[in-house]
Amino acid sequence: MTDDAASDAGEAAIASPVGAPPAAWAPRGSGSGHRRGAGSAWQRYGWVMAAIWMVFLGYPLVALLRSDAAIGWIIAGWVGLAAFVVIYVAGFINGMSYSGGGLTTAPKPIQWVAFALMIVCAVVTIPAVGGSALSFVPFIMSFASYGLTRTAHWLTLAGAIIVTAAVVFLTPGGLTYLSILAIVALLGVVNTVSTWLIIRSAEAERLGLELATSEGREAVARDVHDLVGHTLTVVRMKAQLARRLMDSDPERAKAELADIEALTADAIAGVRETVAGVRSASLAEQLGSCRAALQAAGIVVSVEGEVQALSPAQSLTASWILREATTNVLRHAAARTVTVRIAPGSLVVIDDGVGTAGAEGNGVRGMRERATTAGATLTVAAGTEGGTRVEVTW
User: Fold this and answer.
1) What residue ranges in the chain does DSSP mark as E strands?
2) By its UniProt entry, which InterPro entries does this protein fall under (predicted)?
3) Whole-number pLDDT of residue 95
4) What SS3 class is residue 16?
5) Which residue range(s) make up the domain with 387?
6) What's residue 26's pLDDT?
7) Last residue of a domain, which of 191, 209, 227?
8) Collapsing DSSP states into helix, strand and coil, what is residue 379?
9) Are 200 and 322 part of one and the same domain?
C-alpha cells in the first residue's frame, strides 16, 4: 500500500464508525482541493466502500417485492431505488473522492444536484414501500454531512429527525421503524463529531503548512544573510587592501581584485543554491575559506581538533556558525588572533578583539536560531582574556 493510500485508509477508519453509511469513508484532502492521481486507490476502489453499505437498502427492496401498490408505483419504486444507488455511488466517487467533499472545499454544483436527486428518488418509492423508505435517510444524511456544507449538514439532520419521528409516532404501525429513528439520531451525533474533527484536522494541517512556509522563509533569509554578509565583509576588506597596494604592488592588487571577482561569483551561486535549498558547504571547506579570509586581514588563525570530530549534521550547522563568527570578527572585533577548536559535540571560536557590547545583532541572533533548530546550544560570551568566545554544543 502506498503512503497516500495508507493515510487515506487511516483517516477513513477514524471518520467511519461501524454502521455509518459509506460517505463517512470518503478520503479527506488537506484543504487544497487537489485531484488525486489516476492510480489512487480511492479512485479505483472507492465505489466498493460505497456499495458495501447498499445492503441496508435491502429493506425497501423487500418491501418492493411484497408491495401490493399499483403497478405504476411499483415500477416507479424500482426506478427510484436503482437511480438512488447509482447517484449515491457516483456522487460518492466523483463528487467526494476527487474533490474532498464540502468539508474543506466548496462543494461542486454536481454534488448539490446529486443530493436533490437522491431525495427525489427516495420520495418516489414511498407509495410502493411506505415507511421502508426511511432506510434512505441515513444515506442522505451522510451525503449532506460529508459532501456538502455545515449548513446543509444541520438542516438535513434536523429534517431527518423530524420526518423520521413523524413517521414513527404519527402513522399507523410507525413504531415498527423506531430502530431507524434511533439510527438517525445516533448517526447525527456521529456525523457531527466526525466532520468537526475532520475540519479541525484540515485547519491544523493548513496552519502547520503556513508555519512550515514561514520557517522556510526565515531559514532562507538567515542563510542569505550569513552568506552575503560574510562575502561582502571579505570583499570590502580585499577592496581596501587592493586600493592600498595599487601603487606599491600592482601585481598583488590584481590578485586581490581577482579574489573579489571569484568571491562575488561564489556568492551569487551560493544565493541561488540557498534559495533552491541545496547549499550545504562542508565544515572543512568553510574552515579553509574562513582561515583564508582572516589571514588576508592580518589575523593569525590556529585550528585545534579535526572536522571529523563532528557528525555530518553537526558539521553543517557548525559551518554556518563558523562563517558568521568569522564575519563578526572581520567586521567588529579588531582582533589579532582567532582560535577555532573542534571537539566531539562542540565548536568554539575565540578571538582576542574588543569583545561583545550591546544587544545581539542579526548575526548572533541568526546563529542562535540555527543552533536551536539543529538541537544545539549557542553561547556567546566574553573570553577569559578579553575578546569574544562563541561556542555551539550538542
Assistant:
1) 300-304, 337-343, 346-351, 377-382, 388-393
2) HATPase_C_sf, Sensor_HK_TwoCompSys, Sig_transdc_His_kin_sub3_dim/P
3) 57
4) coil
5) 282-394
6) 37
7) 209
8) strand
9) no
